[in-house]
Amino acid sequence: MKTVGIVGGSGFIGSHTTKKFLEEGFNVKVSVTDIKKSEKYQHLFNFENSDNLNISALKVEDSEMLKDFISDCEIVVHGGTPFQLDVDDPQKELFDPTIKGTENFLKAIQDAPLIDKVVFIASVAVWNTNFPLPAGTKKMTDVFDEKDIKFTTPESHPYAQAKFIANQIVEKFISENPVLPFEITSVSPVMVMGKSLSNREDSTSTGIQFLFKNKIAPNPFIQMFYDEDVPMAIVDVADVAEAIFKAATIKGTHKKNYLLSSETYPVSDVSLMLNQQSPKNNAGIIYKNGLAQKDLGIKFRPVQETLNNYSK
User: Are the C-beta atoms of 139 and 97 separated by less than 8 Å?
Assistant: First the structure.
């Protein structure tokens, strides 16, 4: 029985990923930043095969803790970077844990004796920090795939910038280490939506769904979505977990970074579907998913199904 370590395995995406690996018969180690806050990970013990689940305290900025966490893992999934839109101190809240955490993680895996696969949960922001707005000179309706040039600007949200920089660090590491005893694969989901597996109130992903469902705009950034009726590329959280599992268990995906996306709808339609109503527009495809379908065998479910699963 193989052991997988999932950094950030109790969050929105992480919980679905933990569930998937447990169902597939893995020993699963999940890291949490504060072991005393059991309400943030207790739901994981409701999953099938939870006898094979272990919870460990870990701060990604701590190199020694990282080395200890991954020392007995054959697979490591790194999804332990914060996803938040309201930020008081971007350096402390986003750049440090995302960038320094990635640097420490890369150092730690070099010394790990058992690892044969590493999966980074990146973001569409590593391709376009302007998401959900178009990249550079592209129009709202222009398509984007893995062959496009990555786009970033310092005017983008700090979260997007941090993810972009962290991915550059991963790419540089791969380039500077052409012979590694393990494969590194990344997945880059667009806006992740769907059903949460916990009752946590601090999930940005479920929070955004709540805002869109009720047409609430707590800040100018969210208000912009409604004012411009922004086309939103969406992917189901369960499909993201499936892609992470496939990327971790299929050989021959080294150095690849897969865009994970289903259909695109304007935010007005997203609000309708979150309220169990039919969209007024036909689904579009802005971010292509062909590479993930081809290499990983993922069949992305329709967005209407995804949004109907959100119940709050």
Answer: no
Classify the C-alpha dihedral 101-104-109-110 as positive or negative: positive
- Whether the CB-CB separation of 234 and 208 falls below 8 Å is answered with no
What pLDDT, in 10s, does the model give residues 87-128? Answer: 778 778 788 878 888 999 999 999 898 999 999 999 999 999
Tokens 């020993």 correspond to: 27
pTM of the predicted structure, to 2 decimals: 0.95
Q: Supply 17's token pair.
A: 């990923």
Tell me: the pLDDT tens digits for 58-83?
A: 888 788 999 999 999 999 999 867 66
Cis? peptide before 132, omega within 30° of 0: yes
Beta strands in the chain (DSSP E): 3-7, 27-32, 53-57, 75-78, 117-121, 183-189, 191-193, 231-236, 257-260, 264-266
Residue 285: CB atoms within 10 Å: 16
Tell me, what's the pLDDT at 96?
Answer: 82
CATH number at residue 71: 3.40.50.720
- Structural domain range at position 186: 3-308
Instruction: Give the C-alpha separation, 162 to 173, whole Å.
Output: 17
Give the count of domains, the chain.
Answer: 1
Beta strands in 138-245 (DSSP E): 183-189, 191-193, 231-236
Q: Alpha-carbon distance 62 to 58, whole Å?
A: 8
Tokens 């939870």 correspond to what residue?
Answer: 50
Q: Give residue 261's pLDDT.
A: 98
Helix (H, G, I), strand (E, B) or coil at 88: coil
Taking residues 224-232, what's their average pLDDT?
A: 95
Sequence-separated contacts (24+) of 197-203 with Cβ below 8 Å:
197/15, 197/16, 197/19, 197/43, 198/10, 198/15, 198/40, 198/43, 199/43, 200/39, 200/40, 202/40, 203/11, 203/12
How many Å apart are CA 292 and CA 295, to the nearest integer? Answer: 5
